[in-house]
Design brief:
2 domains, mainly alpha, 453 residues
């Protein structure tokens, strides 16, 4: 049995690369989140909840800048037939560098207005400094995307973890010395710089040079225009809660909410990593619409990944209050109910998570945009309606209802590329519903207290 399992990991076949890449992605993401959790536990004892609320605002704005300007360079390289052509890669890198410079300049330009909107003068200084991480990331070599394209993720995983460890050490040292939110900002920029050095020194392949090939640029822009619009919608879908709740909740409560969100989102973010890094190459090499055999093999992968993610999400939801009680001091008690509710409301999204990259793998960024736009509209609409009717509790329930309302758009997109699997969805809908009921029953008192806020 051991030899049989071992043989599946060897060789250059798609199955072997999928198995290796899945293990590396899961192990790497698990280790990264463990480091983040360790950092979180240490820093909550060195800093105050307000610092985490302030940093959450900075993080949302930085992610917004990155997503509002995403032209799809990475997925374009992963799905393109020219994804190994150096002229194509150098053109993509040139676009990426220009974008990084513009992002940093924009972060500097909006710093003062954003500080005025949120009534936090320190944001005027934090945003330009945090924006340096976007500038640095713009120079990351395309070799990392090429490795991902061919499901060669072992070294990438090690380099990412190494930079995170260095960033964690810096954060702890600076937090101990300054007792300030600057520890989190300095750590983020330092990690980005270390990762850039690691990629350039330790990844094999040709170095990128500034180059502009018209044909390559046209292909990148044609594919990327819908990715650009999709990532704007994706930002509103994924970060809209923080934008809205950041103005609704006091800064200390918003910091506590963000800690709960961090714990609750671990499974779905890990699933997102898996679908982006592993499933795009798999869908590209074995399109489900091409043959029944391709569909069956992808079906097995989807059943395995969805089952693991629902199991993990359900565990976090059921044990949310207990986890917060064990790991944090009483100032963060409210985060327990937040963990329970967010985890439960993410289950509808987890069920359809493995479909999301099928359209991109087929080069259909237009349908991916339509799905992203529908999700953004539904999520913001349901979240705001829930907030008006039931406060924070209603807002989080609204996000779960938005996931159900978006299902017809998921079916429309996945059917076009032959990926939709109704048996998979029906089975996990039942499992997910039972999991949510169990989590609510076990944590009824904490959820009642959250609803009363």
């Amino acid at each position: 049995m051991i030899m049989a399992m071992s043989s599946r990991f060897r060789g250059a076949s798609l199955n072997a690369r999928f198995m290796r890449s899945s293990v590396f992605t899961l192990a790497g993401y698990g280790a990264a989140q463990t480091l983040r959790l360790a950092s979180n536990l240490i820093l909550t004892r060195l800093l105050f909840p307000e610092a985490f609320g302030l940093m959450a605002l900075v993080a949302v704005i930085m992610q917004g800048l990155a997503m509002f300007s995403d032209v799809g360079v990475n997925p374009a390289i992963m799905q393109s037939k020219r994804g190994d052509d150096q002229k194509f890669l150098d053109t993509a890198w040139t676009i990426q560098v220009i974008r990084g410079v513009l992002l940093w300049l924009f972060a500097c330009a909006i710093a003062v207005p954003v500080a005025a909107i949120y009534g936090e003068p320190l944001l005027a200084w934090l945003l330009p400094f945090s924006g340096l991480s976007l500038l640095i990331a713009g120079f990351n070599p395309t070799r990392m995307v090429t490795a991902n394209r061919h499901l060669l993720l072992g070294r990438l995983t090690a380099l990412n973890l190494g930079s995170q460890v260095i960033g964690l050490v810096i954060a702890i040292v600076v937090a101990w010395y300054l007792q300030s939110v600057w520890a989190l900002v300095i750590s983020g920029v330092s990690s980005a710089l270390v990762l850039l050095v690691f990629y350039n020194v330790l990844l094999p392949g040709e170095r990128n040079r500034f180059h502009w090939e018209r044909a390559a640029a046209d292909e990148l822009i044609k594919f990327g225009k819908w990715i650009f619009l999709s990532t704007i919608c994706g930002f509103l879908y994924l970060q809209g809660d923080k934008l809205i709740l950041g103005t609704y909740l006091p800064l200390d409560q918003f910091g506590i909410y963000n800690i709960g969100f961090f714990l609750a989102s671990f499974p779905i973010l890990m699933g997102g990593e898996m679908t982006r890094k592993v499933l795009i190459p798999v869908y590209r090499e074995r399109p489900p619409a091409k043959s029944a055999e391709n569909f069956r093999k992808l079906q097995k992968m989807r059943f395995l990944l969805t089952g693991a993610l629902i199991c993990l999400t359900g565990t976090v939801s059921v044990a949310g209050v207990l986890l917060i009680d064990l790991m944090y001091d009483p100032r963060y008690l409210m985060a327990g109910a937040v963990v329970v509710l967010i985890s439960a409301m993410q289950i509808p999204h987890i069920i359809v998570l493995t479909y999301e990259q099928a359209a991109l793998a087929a080069g259909d960024s237009h349908r991916f945009f339509v799905l992203s736009a529908a999700r953004a509209v539904l999520t913001l609409g349901f979240l705001f309606a829930g907030l008006m009717q039931g406060g924070l509790f209603g807002a989080l329930v609204g996000q779960g209802l938005a996931g159900l309302a978006a299902y017809p758009f998921v079916v429309w997109m996945s059917r076009h590329v032959g990926a939709w699997d109704p048996k998979h969805d029906a089975l996990y809908a039942v499992v997910g519903a039972l999991t949510i009921l169990l989590a609510f029953w076990i944590n009824a008192d904490a959820l009642t207290n959250l609803a009363a806020l």
